[in-house]
Amino acid sequence: MDLYQELILDHSKRQFGHGLREGHLAEVHHVNPTCGDEVTLRVHLDGTGHDATITDISYEALGCSISMASTSILAEEVTGDSIDDAMVVHEAMRQMLTSRGKNSGDEEVIGDGVALAGVAQYPARVKCALLGWMALTDALAQAGVDIATTSQGETA
């Protein structure tokens, strides 16, 4: 088994941030209708605007190992980041996962997220991998963050 498969399995079994915690500013529930994956995600912020820090991401997830691993990677990679920095990671993941295999990802930006690069070759699985990431943008919007004006300059 290669390192990337091991990372995906490890994140799906030992999920970083798993378990809903109190003190959140926003909670969202997302469902992938094509396969039934679900995630309820809570975001905790310290500060306001784009300089706010994501102090915690907690979630409950049901679904395939790709969906659960990706949400675990999300929680691990952006907890402690500013909104702008988190949106840079989000956009890098989105670009990698929607590239149909032409973008293998930048480990410096997305960390363990590079383990999911192979998912891009399977369009039906891309939604699984993006489920938690899309829930994050909705949770941030619900918390009052204008995602359209992040340092990425586009809606995530």
Describe this structure in words.
A hairpin with a 6-residue loop joins strand 2 and strand 3 (53-62). A three-stranded antiparallel beta sheet has the order 1-2-3, with helices on one face. The termini are far apart. Helix 1 packs across helix 2 (65-78), helix 2 (65-78) packs across helix 5 and helix 3 (83-97) runs antiparallel to helix 5. It contains five helices and three strands; from the N terminus they run H-E-E-E-H-H-H-H. It has helices at 3-13, 65-78, 83-97, 107-110, 123-142; strands at 26-31, 38-46, 53-62. The protein has 156 residues and is an alpha+beta fold. Helices cover 41% and strands 16% of the residues. The longest helix has 20 residues, at 123-142. It has one domain: Sufe protein. Chain: A (Alpha-Beta Complex).
